Amino acid sequence: MQLSKESRLVSGVILLTIPTIMYGGITLLSILTQGAVGFGGNITLDEAQFALWRAGHAHAGVWVILSIVIQLLIDSSKLSSANKWIARISAPLAAIAVPGGFFGLAFLPGFRWLIYFGVLSLLVSLLLTGIGLLRNLHTSELQT
Predict the structure, then answer these.
(1) pLDDT (average), residues 14-35
(2) Which string of b and e fits 81-110 if b means at least 16 CB within 10 Å?
(3) What would the pLDDT profile of 28-44 be if each residue is shown by its tens digit?
(4) Which whole-number Å values give the CA distances from 27 to 1, 18, 46, 96, in the listed order?
(5) From CA 46, how far away is CA 37, in angstroms rounded?
(6) Chain-centre distance of CA 59, in angstroms?
(7) pLDDT tens sequence across 104-127
């Protein structure tokens, strides 16, 4: 499989964000084992806050993987260069925004908008990529 330069660039940057997700896992482990956030244990979460942190961590991991898969699919899509970049950037942006919204919402209701922004961002990426793949369906049949 040959990756485009753009897919390699964006996927490489996305992979560099995974240590932050790993840190989130360590944080959740400290909550479960010590009852508080962080290595020093200086913030205590109630049940609702803990549930939001779990949701943020889970969404971060899954959506980062999805955003890498989307990079591969975009290479096979038939979209303008601008639409390919919009799709490429929207997926990892969603993988940052939605978890950030969950983490922030645990403390301030104002962070709710970040979740909606992330959902819309992923929706844009998915729709563009899906349309691009369907537009390239006939082309790929001619090549086989």
Answers:
(1) 85
(2) eebbebbbebbbbbbbbbbbbbbbbbeeee
(3) 887 777 776 655 556 77
(4) 37, 14, 15, 17
(5) 11
(6) 7
(7) 999 899 999 999 999 999 999 999
